Model the fold of this input.
Amino acid sequence: MSHQEHVLGIDIGTGSARAGIFTLDGVMLAEAKTPIAMHRPAEHHVEQSSTDIWNAVCSATQRAREAAGVAPDAITSMSVSATCSLVLLDQQDKPLELSPGDEAWNIIVWMDHRATAEAAECTATNAAPLANLGGVMSPEMQMPKLMWLKRHRPELYNQIGYAGDLGDWLGFKCTGSIERSVCMLACKWTFDPRPGYGWDHDFLDQIGMQDVLERARLSDQVRPVGVRLGQLTAAAAADLGLTTDCTFAVGMIDAYAGALGTLGRSLTDAPEKRLAVIGGTSTCHISAQPERREVPGVWGPYPGALCNGFVANEGGQSITGALLDHLVAMFAAGSEFGDDVHGMLSDVLLERLKNGDPAPHTHVCPDFIGNRSPLADPEIRGAITGLTLDTPRESFIKVYWAAATALVYGTRAIIERLNAHGYAIDTLHLSGGHGRSALLRKLYADGTGCRVILSDAPEPVLLGAAVAAMAANANGDVLSVASELSPGEQVLAPDPATYELHSARYAAFKQLYAGRLD
Done:
């Protein structure tokens, strides 16, 4: 067992908790993953359990450390990236049960859309915080979810003793500190970290949530990403298989960790031209520059959410990888492509692409659960057009192609909106599951006309969490840490031979939105 100093990066995604052990120069020695359960008690309701997630984090941490051959006392700091799901505890800091189960379902998952009506009410106020959200409140944010709880489950709302983003909750679980990350509060709670701003009490009064700050234990101060939050408690250290000498550093939302792990080295070089694209179950698009840019339909501007000195904007697509998985499950022919359906389809479509558009008349509107950006409309629903009486296998291939291109065109629409409001994006820093797909890599370059940069880091999101952990010993300067540690890169240029194909398909894609993207 090595006793040299190492750091631990934790990533809590939608379907699993992952742990990575890193050297101080950013090399990942080992990774382990543990699945986490999901509960869907009603339409648009998606829940998880903080007990289940804690057990998954501990299991992944212990197995990753053992696989890396690192002693417990060699892990000197750790941090977290996590989905922006809402964790609810009671006044004894126990899970507050939303739905019954062996382990209380006490988390409203980010993709839960039960609070669509409440989000619309927030938007209707036209209050100052809306200027930091692209003008529209999303049901994926925390205030609408808590409004829903207060309105529909008042007995539970009255029992709340803590409510926090998943990443902040892990810090609380590990250290006992209730201090919050600027990334979580700015992006998902309507907190404005600019000096003299903070919580907008007039807005909270308008939506009837005056009591939420005290009830959820939300303070008027936030902590920068990467600064020291505290040491592990004895109980947390024992569960994780670490020691109380391990420092927990303030973490961030998972997409921002992916952006830090891929974009961090480049933020001082024409940042207005760069966009981090973190594609997995959903896709987040994060750009940052020193100036504040308000972009309709795009979240932000968020000062400090990625790092000090930069103001971030965040576009998103609520389902991307999840949509492709859904199509595989929906079409019976999906079972004909073996265990690696996406890999086999990638090979088939790349071969067909050599002869032109594999399905010129088939198109998909990919917003099966609403459009996050740039239309910010949770009521939009998906559509498939141009089907004929092909064989089931052929129909499936064509629809999959149409969906894959549509996901990239959704990114293109976000780029166009950003570029109309102070950006000049021509470079994508791609990470996540989409970066591992040969088909999607090519489509992101050809379908947007941007060059695509692929990091050699095997797990950029875990690397971003590790950067935050290392920054605890650098006064929270995550940007300087990322600049020194960033691994090599590969560059994929768009193929000009596909320009006409994607121009035609993008025009058809925009027609599905009845002119709303023009």
